[in-house]
Amino acid sequence: MPKIHLMIIDTHCHLDSLLESSVDFLDSLSIFQNDHLTPHFIAMSVSPDNWSATLKLSLLYPNIHASLGIHPWYVTAQSRASLQSLEDLLNVECVVALGEIGLDFSATYQHSKLFQMDVLEAQLSLAEKFSKPISIHVVKAHNELYQSLRQRSMTGIIHGLGSSLEVAQNYVDCGFKIGVNGVLLRGNAHRYHALVRYFGTEHLVLETDYPNVKLPGQAKSNLHDSIRVAEQVATLLGLSFDDVLKTLNDNAEQIFQLSSS
Ligand SMILES: [Zn+2]
């Protein structure tokens, strides 16, 4: 009997390079195919400069879904002026989310703190207005982010979250899921392992953050690394790969509503 294909949803990846070369993408697709998996990708953008590339990809490939937004690293004094075009683009059918957005108060990005907070608030308001989920990048700004999210009614993903259990619980209480990626395969990622063990599959979704995260021992990041991340979740929780994948996909589907997009 042929094996049923399961869906595997990568909730956070950056696919701009695919417009120049599709070799890696096609390689990964054949690996998914061999494993009887049907992949879907939520493709992030980081600034107005790559909104059209992200949209183009989602129009070219039915399993790529666009997420548009301004990442905190790219926030400038001029960012506010781009928000009207963002609002116009949110009406496009293939845009399933706002992202990657958020706050990064690490030393390198401290200088834009006030602009970051202003642009985040504006993007959260757009997400509420269009009832779209958000994909969040947060570094050293959990308090500020939590204060913003708790006053709003929205859903989404805190991507690559490696925080304390308490911080993660606050986000889960606000209706957010935790995105787990290849960092989970590092032997020393104790905090991350603890998060997965504590929350179980109910509050997790898969991501690769391609091409930014490499699995231990690998020379480059791959889109099919999501398979290894799901295997690692299964190992940590003592569950079967199929059960993990089904729950994590249900979580992602619930947020991004892919079947209706
Ligand atoms: Zn990212």
Keywords:
alpha/beta; 8-stranded parallel beta sheet; TIM Barrel
Question: How would you characterize this protein structure?
Answer:
- The protein has a single domain (about 5-255), classed as Metal-dependent hydrolases (TIM Barrel, Alpha-Beta Barrel).
- It is built from nine helices and eight strands.
- It has helices at about 25-35, 50-60, 80-90, 115-130, 140-150, 165-175, 190-200, 225-235, 240-255; strands spanning about 5-15, 35-45, 65-70, 95-105, 135-140, 155-160, 175-180, 205.
- It has an eight-stranded parallel β-sheet with strand order 1-2-3-4-5-6-7-8.
- Zinc ion binds near residues 14, 100 and 209.
| Count of beta strands | 8
Major beta sheet, strand line-up: 1-2-3-4-5-6-7-8
CA gyration radius, whole angstroms: 17 Å
Q: State the low-pLDDT regions, or none.
A: none
CA-to-CA gap between the ends? 31 Å
CATH fold description: TIM Barrel
Oligomer: single chain
| Name given to the CATH architecture | Alpha-Beta Barrel
How many domains?
Answer: 1
Fraction in beta strands: 15-25%
Identify the CATH class.
Answer: Alpha Beta
